[in-house]
Amino acid sequence: MNSLILVPVFFPMILAIMLPIAKFRERVRNLYVGAGVTANFILIMFVFYFIGEGKIHLLKLNEFVDVYFRIDKMGMLFSILVSILWIFTTFYSMEYMKHEGKENRFFTFFILTLGITLGIGFSGNLFTLYIFYELLTLATFPLVIHGGTKEAINSGKKYLIYSFGGATLVLLGMMVLFSITKSLDFNPGGILNEIEHTNTKMMLWIYISMFIGFGVKAALVPFHSWLPSAMVAPTPVSSLLHAVAVVKSGAFALIRMSYFIFGVRVIKETKANLYMSVLIVITILLGSFLALHQENLKKRLAYSTISQLGYILLGIVLLNKDAFVGGVLHLINHAVIKIVLFFSVGAIMYSTGKTRINEIKGIGKKMPITMWCFGISSISLIGIPPSNGFVSKWFLAQGGLMGGRMLFPAILLISAVLTSLYLLPVVTAAFFKTEEGEEIVVKEAPKKMLIPIVCITVIVVFLGLFPNPIISFIEEIATEVM
């Protein structure tokens, strides 16, 4: 029965392999892809319901080389988030990719990336997570360079260099860690608590090495510049990079490493969290300041992502229950908010060809649904009550106060002000400014793009008004790992 755990991971990979072989016509291909990702979500829910927290070793050569899958609450949360947002991105992409071209190639790697991302969520140990983490880089590289331009190729190369550089640091730390622990299995509360007389300085360097390594994909400053460069990719890919797959996989890996390998006690003893918090504060503030200076809509959102990821990382290193809940909750909230923002910008680009803030004056009257969704999501990202962004930031601020660090709530408040300064001008330009020059006929994007935008905006609002079920679930995880 536990072998069913493998199905949601490998089913999308089989779909991806079959897609270029079958050579479907557009309509059949869209049906194939849409039905495939939807069926995979149903499979995931089936596995969670009937198997629960199961586990299976797919390949075990020794204690280190062990491809091991295990379902737990943290993996469930991540996998459900990924699967739901993937369905919306799929239907959005069916229309958007028509003017990008090479759709079959796009959907092949798009579905493949889904299976790999779920492999990260289902990983039962650090070795398995690392394997799928590396595969994620390889699968998303063709999506980043999809346009085939010189700029796209250079951005792809930068993405590979940063990702593999970070992965090398992870591998180095993982090998040294294994020489001490003889196990890399994820265990709530960590596996190092049971090992006495460890070398504190060595543990510090292992943690820093692995935190920076995984932090590359989570756009930790100063290892962040690959992310804005990757904005040359099509908008659905930007959504994958920023909201669902890549950066959230980096944050998820850091949660696994911190709370399921090292544990709170060991991290506190090494003071590794204090060292990392310096980079995280810089990430939050620098991302916001750089976003202020971007006229290109996608790049403004890219630097915003860097700042917002800092919130999640802050929740990880504060090492208390409220901060953990806030960090994991913001991982979910930022995903749904940011995917609406990117989808909305993509809809503007699709309908008008405009990419800069000064080009969208008055567009709110012509694309009201798109811009209302953008506005609601902007308010949520700023953290104005009763939005979902406010809920996660409230828990993070509480976590900072609980840890006796008044600086962190102040940083969150400053960042919220900066977030309003770089998002609200987009909304005011769209609704309250008049288009200059000759008026161009513009209408809303097609329904295949508009419906996912509206549906996810509804989720954003719902998570703000009714956050308690998810908070309760995350609190259960927090209780296990603290």
UniProtKB/TrEMBL annotation:
Top-level taxon of the source organism: Bacteria
Keyword entries, A-Z: Cell membrane, Membrane, Oxidoreductase, Transmembrane, Transmembrane helix
GO molecular function: oxidoreductase activity
Transmembrane spans: 6-24, 31-51, 74-94, 106-124, 159-180, 204-227, 239-262, 274-292, 331-349, 369-386, 406-432, 453-474
Pfam families to which the protein is assigned, alphabetical: Proton_antipo_M, Proton_antipo_N
Protein family according to the UniProt entry: Belongs to the CPA3 antiporters (TC 2.A.63) subunit A family.
The name this protein goes by in its record: Monovalent cation/H+ antiporter subunit D family protein
The organism of origin for this protein: Clostridium bovifaecis
Taxon lineage: Bacteria, Bacillati, Bacillota, Clostridia, Eubacteriales
